[in-house]
Structure formats: C-alpha cells, structure tokens
Design a protein that fits this description.
alpha/beta; Rossmann fold; 2 domains; 14 helices; globular
Length: 327
C-alpha cells in the first residue's frame, strides 16, 4: 500500500519528525512525503505556498491513503487532495495545532472543519483526543496512539560525580514555559543546559543568570542526556512530551508540569507541578538534585514506565488503521 505523508520533515527536528521517521521505519507500507519548502520565512506565505505547491505536486502522484501530521496547513492540504483524488484522509494531531491555533477563532473554525471531514483522527494522547472531540468530531473516529522509544544499551545514564546539571530540551517558544524555568533556577545551585532554539531565545538569554548555557540545536543528544541530573519540561501546553520518554528511558529523573498529555506519561514516575508555579518548580528540581534516594527511585520508575512505549507498536496500530480504511 502506498501512503502519502504530509508532514514536517528533515532537516527540522522534534517530536513530529521522530514519530514520522519511526512510522516509516517500522510500517510494512510504502511512503512518499510532501513537506514545507525551506526558503519562505513568513508563516502565512509559507502555509499558502505549501498548500499550492503540495497540491500540484501530489496531484500527479499515486497513493492509496493520505496521512497528514498537523491539522493545518497539512490537514487542509490533505482535505483538498481527498476531495480531488477520492482517497481516505487520516490526520494525526500533535498538540499545538489544537492547543495553540485553537485559541484563534478563525483558526479554530478551520481546524474543526478539517478534522470533521477527515476519515480518521489519530491523537498522540488521551488529553488531545478529548480536545478533538470537544471541537465536534465524532469520538468513534478518534484513536489514541502513543509515541514510542528506542531502547539500547546506550540508553543507560552514565554515573556522574558531584556536578548537578539540569537540562531542558525543546523549542524556545512561550508555550514551553522556559521563562518559568529560568525564574525557578535563580536560587538553585547547579548548571542549567538549554538545548533548542526558537523565537524566544533572545529574550530568554536576557533574563538568564549565571551557570545557564544556551546550546542551540544539537543533532546528537546522547552526550547531553548522559550528563543530566534531571530533565525539566515546564510547558504551559503540551500534547505529549516525547522528550520526557527519551529521558526516562535513560534513567534520568524528570520534572514537568501537570498539563496536556504529560500526566499520561509520567503518572507516578516523576514529579508533576502546576504550570507557571515558580516556587513549586524550584522545590521539585531541588528535591531531585539534593536527595539521591528520591533521584534513584524516579530513575528506576522512569525506565520501567518508558519500556511500555514502543515505536514498533505505534507503527502496527497505524498500519491497522490504514488497512481498515481500504478494506
């Protein structure tokens, strides 16, 4: 079976690219990809040009199913192709397409209509499924399929000396709450490594204190993970939080906010705090840095929890949807 994927793709990084990469790796079907052109920097123009370019490129291609990652513009392009090519459309929602765009009334209307006209919706967490259903989409056509993790011997965290290192990995945008982390870190005796980039970077660097290092994008995170004492995800909104699984699989204790799909991952395997609560976040990070017994407990529980999430299982569940749609 031939699947047309409409998605964010390399050289961009992040949870969506990782998910798509592993879907292609473990699925038994064949894939073609349509993605953004690199050279247009204005978001609105990029989205419009992407839909136009993608439509005329895809119209000449042969495929059995359209699978879009993100509701708009990817899902919108998928819907146009569905109507013209008469092929079923699946949309995977990842979070910001619902949680961020959904705050704009026009975008929310567009997102809701795109999702209602898809044949099937994949949500990356139970929380996102509820949000999709709240938009008026039939619950029966929304399925939760979690992300996975790749385990290897290299996933073991190296034993460190006395250095205490707090790590954040992700985009530097408002919804990720890095500003809250910087405020919480001011009274913590440790180093803070911030990995990633985004439009908030300049303003975040201005409010950062001593022992805070902005490392930008990193292709290989193994060295960062191996030296981390704790990974923090202080998000204001979060569809899933794949980086938490990546840290937990390596035995790194995690601290994150109680938002979106995060509690579904962590449950009791890490520390959850209320979003935008600087003092609670500070106390949680300090507890793990200063209490070796608690750090070891969450290291063990995190690895145990992460083993329940498999890329192979994810791909198999998606394959089942593909096959059901064309049977």
């Amino acid at each position: 079976m031939n699947i047309l994927l409409i998605t964010i793709w390399k050289p961009r990084k992040g949870g969506i690219v990782t998910r798509v990469e592993n879907l292609i790796r473990f699925s038994k079907h064949n894939f073609s990809i349509i993605t953004y052109e690199k050279y247009i920097n204005l978001p609105i123009l990029r989205a419009i040009s992407f839909v136009v370019y993608g439509f005329f490129k895809a119209i000449l291609m042969r495929f059995d199913i359209i699978h879009a990652h993100y509701a708009i513009p990817q899902g919108f392009l998928g819907l146009l192709l569905k109507k013209v090519k008469k092929k079923p459309l699946i949309i995977t929602v990842h979070g910001s397409d619902i949680l961020v765009l959904g705050k704009n009334r026009i975008a929310k209307f567009l997102v809701a209509n795109v999702l209602k006209n898809a044949n099937y919706i994949i949500a990356v967490s139970k929380y996102l499924k509820r949000e999709v259903v709240n938009l008026g989409v039939e619950e029966s056509k929304v399925k939760v399929i979690y992300a996975g993790i790749s385990f290897s011997l290299e996933n073991e965290k190296e034993e460190k000396g006395k250095e205490k290192r707090v790590v954040y990995i992700g985009s530097l945008v408002k919804q990720k709450g890095v500003d809250i982390l910087l405020k919480a870190f001011k009274d913590i005796n440790a180093e803070l490594f911030i990995v990633g980039d985004g439009k908030e970077r300049d303003s975040l660097e201005k409010i950062s204190g001593k022992k805070v290092y902005f490392l930008g994008e990193r292709k290989n995170l193994d060295k960062i993970f191996s030296k981390a004492s704790v990974l923090v995800l202080p998000s204001r909104e979060e569809g899933f939080g794949l980086v938490l699984l990546e840290a937990m699989s390596r035995g790194i204790p995690v601290v994150a906010t109680r938002v979106g799909g995060i509690p579904e991952i962590i449950n009791k395997s890490g520390l959850l705090v209320e979003r935008e609560n600087v003092e609670e976040l500070r106390k949680a990070i300090t507890l793990i840095l200063n209490n070796r017994k608690i750090a070891k407990k969450f290291s063990y529980l995190g690895r145990k929890t992460a083993k329940k999430f498999s890329w192979r299982k994810m791909a198999h569940e998606v394959d089942c949807i593909y096959e059901a749609l064309v049977s």
